[in-house]
Known about the structure:
This protein has helices spanning 15-28, 41-48, 52-64, 113-120, 124-129, 136-152, 168-177, 193-201, 218-226, 248-261, 282-285, 316-327, 332-344, 346-368, 392-401, 409-412, 433-447; strands at residues 68-71, 75-78, 99-100, 162-165, 184-188, 205-209, 211-212, 215-216, 231-234, 264-268, 290-295, 307-310, 374-375, 382-386, 404-405, 407-408, 422-426. It is of the alpha/beta class.
Amino acid sequence: MTMWIPDISKSSQPAYLAIVEAIGDGIRLGQLRPGDPLPTHRLLADLLGVNVSTITRAYREAAKRRLVGGEVGRGTFVLGVASEAALFALQHRPEGGVIDLSLNMPPLAVRDQDLAAFLGQLGPVESARLLHYPSPDETLVHRQAAAGWLKRRGVEADPEGIVVCAGAQHAMDTAISLFQEWEEVACEALVYPGLKAAARHWQRRLHPIALDAEGLRPDAFETACRSGLRLFVVSPTLHNPTTATMGIQRRRRIVEIARKWDVILIEEDVYGLLPEDPPPPLVSMAPERVIYLTGLSKTVAPGLRIGYLLFPPAFRDRMRDAEHHTTWYVSALTMALATQWLTSGIAWRRLQAQRRELAARHQLCAKHLQNFKWRGEANCPHVWMVAPPGGSAAFAKRAQASGVVVVPSNVLAAGRIASEDGIRISIGAASDRKTLAEGLSRLDELLR
């Protein structure tokens, strides 16, 4: 391959950080691939006109961010396994300069009285207990609280049938791991980066299925079923990244086709409770073949790493195989906090507050993105913008140079080529509405 050389001439950052950011950009844009060698310290220092110590510091920082690795005698190599790895690489920001709208998460308050109150109630004995592993009784109590939470979504769940995981991403990873007999997993043509990571982890190929404005297309879904695919990951409510939500008739058609071809659906429903009046989940229509997956990070608090898997009775043997392993990852402290919030109504209050905040932020999108083609729903934590002329990757690069980090469609494509060229803007990621408005204004300025 042609030797990669970063261009740091236009960066206002210290040289070592500019090199790290260039490595992250190279991974995100596909210019750097896993295993690619980077120039030696001395060669890159000579090419850029900097000290060798600057290159050493840059490579050390890139290694801390898990972008590169090195071995004595072999040099420095790219570790990033896909373009989405670079989403999490931007750890250092120019002071007051960068607004990160790349990570999909709920809006966060500067202070959190709910967590402070919970911690303040803990005495020395209970505090010590919560630093041990969760007991079976504590896990069962939490499952019962989780069953009540799922009921708000229209999901009737036996507490004994719920597997508690360390977040929804862990739940997805667990669900895919249980079906070793299939090397290929079908999914929407555009997906969130975590699904791509889980597929790579378990060495599964993702098979992209075409989308339209309502989500998964029934004709494309049936074509995939006819071709022999038997495991599908579907995100029918506030799809990440396109924001699409299937209507009730579309959901019924998908279930009808799934039954016809006897396929299994993993329903990813982490945003299912955010809409004021969401359609019923697929699991309520086909409980015999839908593995239901959700969590609390996207609706209650991003640091509340609790996820849930609900298995059909036919898969309870597989569930038992995974159950003990998954609970190792769940903290007793986190579980106790989630149980208290779910049973006291705090979780529901926080979700309703998030609905209101996202609706207000959506209005900012309507104001500042009027020169773009974009779509989104009032309670969705992200919006989807059709790529302007030049393409999404080039626009994301220009946006980052202007101090706004957004996600282009090549990062979100399940296949080699994105089915729709667009950009995901995570409106919940901004620290407050003023920051979001500034970021959106910069994007608008770029277009004009």
